[in-house]
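Need residues for this backbone.
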C-alpha cells in the first residue's frame, strides 16, 4: 500500500519514468525557501553558482531539512522502498530571459550508480512552466541506455553539457509544469531536458537525488550520502553530517572535500576540471 502516491501513480513512475505533481510545500513555505536562498544570494552578490549549487544541503540547515521532509520522503519511499539515502542535491535555476538550458540526457549515463533504484525529487520554489523552461520528459525512455556526448556548451546547466546522440522525438515530450511548492519524481534513466527561460521572472528548482541504500557507486572506492530514512543496510556509503549552522566553517570544509571527490568521479574521462571553484562567498 503506497504512503502518498496512488497505485496508478506508482505504476506510471515505473512504466513512463516520471510522475507529477505532488504538493509537498505550501505556497508560503515555498516562498520562505526562496527568500532564504535569495538572502544568501544577496549577501554573496549574485545567483548561487559553482560548487555551492551542488549538495547545498551540506551547507544550509534549511536545505538539510528539505531533503528530510517527511512528505517528500513518503513519496520517494513509494517508489524506492524504506531505506533511503540522499546522494546529491542541486539547484537548477534559470534567470529571467536567459539562454541557460538543459540538453536531453539520462542521469544514469554519468552518475556511475550500479542500479536504477535512483529517483530525483524536483521541488519548485517558483512556478515552473513552458514559458520559463520547465523540465520535459520522454515517456517510457527509461527502458534503454542511450549514448551521450559531452558538449560543454556554455549555456548548458549540466556539468559536462552531456547530450543524447540520437534525435529525440520532441513531439512526444511531456512538460512537467509545477506550481510553487509542488514536486515531480523522475527515474534515473528517463530522457529529460528543459528549454531556456523566456519569462520575465526567475525559475528556481531544487533537485534532490535519492537512492535505495543497496545501490553502489562504481566510479570510485568512496562515495558519500546522507541517510534520510530507514537504515544504510550495506555499509556502501560514508554518511554525511547535518551542518550545524549556515555556512559553518566545518561544514564548508566538509562540503568542499565531498564535492572534490564526487566531482573527480563525475568528470572521469572528461576534458575539463571538476566543478568550477566558488568565486564569491
Ligand atoms: O531543472 C531542469 O531544467 C533540469 C533538471 C534535471 O535535469 C534533473 O533534475 O535531472
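Answer:
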Amino acid at each position: 500500500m503506497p504512503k502518498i502516491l496512488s497505485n496508478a501513480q506508482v505504476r506510471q513512475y515505473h512504466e513512463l519514468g516520471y510522475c507529477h505533481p505532488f504538493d509537498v510545500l505550501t505556497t508560503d513555505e515555498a516562498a520562505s525557501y526562496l527568500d532564504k536562498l535569495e538572502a544568501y544570494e544577496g549577501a554573496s552578490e549574485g545567483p548561487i553558482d559553482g560548487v555551492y549549487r551542488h549538495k547545498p544541503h551540506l551547507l544550509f540547515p534549511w536545505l538539510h531539512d528539505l531533503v528530510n521532509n517527511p512528505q517528500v520522503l513518503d513519496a520517494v519511499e513509494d517508489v524506492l522502498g524504506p531505506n533511503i539515502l540522499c546522494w546529491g542535491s542541486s539547484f537548477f535555476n534559470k534567470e529571467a530571459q536567459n539562454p541557460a538550458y538543459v540538453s536531453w540526457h539520462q542521469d544514469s549515463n554519468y552518475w556511475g550508480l550500479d542500479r536504477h533504484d535512483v529517483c530525483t525529487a524536483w521541488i519548485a520554489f517558483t512556478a515552473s512552466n513552458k514559458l520559463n523552461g520547465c523540465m520535459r520528459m520522454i515517456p517510457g525512455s527509461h527502458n534503454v541506455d542511450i549514448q551521450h556526448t559531452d558538449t560543454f556548451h556554455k549555456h548548458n546547466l549540466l556539468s559536462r553539457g552531456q547530450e543524447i546522440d540520437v534525435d529525440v522525438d520532441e513531439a512526444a515530450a511531456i512538460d512537467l509544469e509545477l506550481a510553487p511548492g509542488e514536486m515531480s519524481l523522475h527515474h534515473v534513466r528517463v530522457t529529460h531536458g528543459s528549454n531556456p527561460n523566456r519569462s520575465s521572472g526567475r525559475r528556481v528548482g531544487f533537485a534532490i537525488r535519492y537512492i535505495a541504500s543497496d545501490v553502489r557507486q562504481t566510479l570510485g572506492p568512496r562515495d558519500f550520502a546522507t541517510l534520510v530514512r530507514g537504515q544504510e543496510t550495506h555499509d556502501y556509503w560514508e554518511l554525511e553530517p547535518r551542518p550545524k549552522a549556515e555556512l559553518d566553517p566545518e561544514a564548508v570544509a566538509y562540503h568542499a572535500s565531498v564535492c572534490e571527490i564526487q566531482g573527480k568521479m563525475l568528470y572521469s574521462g572528461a576534458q575539463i576540471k571538476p566543478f568550477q571553484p566558488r568565486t564569491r562567498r
